[in-house]
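thought: fold this chain, then report.
action: predict
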Amino acid sequence: MRQVVLDTETTGLEVEKGHRIVEIGCVELRERRPTGREFHRYVNPQRAMDQGALAVSGISDEFLSDKLLFADIAAELLEFIDGAEVIAHNAAFDIGFLQAEFARLPEPVRIGERVRVLDTLALAREKFPGQKNNLDALCKRLNVDNRHRHLHGALLDAQLLTEVYLAMTGGQGDLGFAAGDIEFTPVRATADVGARPSLRVRLADAAEIVAHELRLQKLDAVSKGKCLWRVELREPAVA
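observation:
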């Protein structure tokens, strides 16, 4: 299975207000092993950085002024993620911004038709209910060294999230077994439990994740910031 751990940095937090991507970082996994392939680009957003975003990432308007536009790197990015399971922390945020960028292209692309999405924030909330589950908190809890993370950076955060994901889901990627190394012998159950239909698991696609995020934003606005589902999304580390 091919997976791509992805993170973005943006000019601000609200895609519906026209905020744009300024940095994209991706790490490729095959059979839960990093392949060494990475994708990292800074992007000229054609708008100013919010002060809050500048404080978090350290990415300035001046630094971005000579960088390529998203349209210039879109084909390369799509080739890197196409057909993979994309792993992101608070996936609605990153996928929402990616979908908005791809929608601006002369030939728009629907991300939900090209990738599957796994949200590690949802995974962490299920595994560690009632606890902080931003990237820094998970690194501390799972003994992932993030001492060099002084500012948010898309590639750095994707690399850290790779370690967090593997640790959080059992760490099987570190056992040293390559695909095909082990032969499995099927075992017939001794108890007759009757024929059972296979359980079908349907993950939300990217479009559904974006729609969910927009719905939460509306609930948050109506409740004047008291929407419980948004509590952890207000933690300082949106990654």
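thought: worth noting. The longest strand covers residues 21-30.
final: tokens above.
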